[in-house]
Amino acid sequence: MTWKSWLDDYYNLYQTNLVNPVIEERLVAFYDLCQGLRASGNKLMFAGNGASASIASHGAVDFTKQGRLRAIDFNEPNLITCLSNDYGYENFMAKAVEFYGDDGDALVLISVSGNSKNAVAAAKYAKSRGMKVVTFTGSAPDNQLRALSDIDFWIGSRAYNVVEGLHMIWMTTVVDMLVGKAEYSVT
């Protein structure tokens, strides 16, 4: 195997999954949801595990600062350990949504597998409250988060870095849609 061949195959995963009519439709749906949240004064709540937690934090910051839409994430170590200790790790995200979520808010969950128990529990709780759920997943098409989603961004791959990279691109695309352009000052 040559690196050229490997890189061609690797980047083909990005090229074949980055943009298609389904993704474009979901980008617009997520944008519309964000516009409604911004107009009503509601917020986006973000959560994920591992690298997906980092994507969640990045999303919360960019939607707030650039997108002018209030957004929070649940990555504070004290919050995670407190809620996990008292309610179990599988329930910490759901409890965070319970404590921080207001009627009319929306929840964004990021999980390559789409089957993280804590994210699934959070989605179920948010749905029980009537909140919209946006998911960014990968792997199997029948993953649990995707099934609970109002707007789902899914890539049928187990290539973690590719899936996470596409999740970040799709999420920040919606931020730029809220701004209305791709190039702008962030100060």
Compile the SSE list and pairings:
Layout: H1 3-17, H2 21-40, E1 44-48, H3 51-65, E2 71-73, H4 77-87, H5 92-100, E3 106-111, H6 117-128, E4 132-137, H7 144-148, E5 151-154, H8 160-179
Parallel strand pairs: 1-2, 1-3, 3-4, 4-5
**What integer is the average pLDDT?**
97
Q: What is the helix tally?
A: 8
What CATH architecture do you see? 3-Layer(aba) Sandwich
**Structural class assignment:** alpha/beta
| N-to-C span | 46 Å
According to CATH, the fold-level topology is: Rossmann fold
> What percentage of amino acids are in beta strands?
5-15%
Question: Which blocks of ≥5 consecutive residues have pLDDT under 50?
Answer: none
Q: Return the domain count.
A: 1
**CATH class label:** Alpha Beta
Shape label: globular
Domain SIS: 33-184
Keywords: Isomerase
GO molecular function: carbohydrate derivative binding; isomerase activity
Organism: Humitalea rosea
Describe the protein.
The chain has 187 residues and is an alpha/beta fold. It has one domain (3-179): Rossmann fold (3-Layer(aba) Sandwich), CATH 3.40.50. It is 57% helix and 13% strand. It contains eight helices and five strands. It has helices spanning 3-17, 21-40, 51-65, 77-87, 92-100, 117-128, 144-148, 160-179; strands spanning 44-48, 71-73, 106-111, 132-137, 151-154. It has a five-stranded parallel β-sheet with strand order 2-1-3-4-5, sandwiched between helices. Helix 2 (21-40) crosses helix 8 and helix 4 packs across helix 5. The radius of gyration is 16 Å and the shape is globular. The termini are far apart.
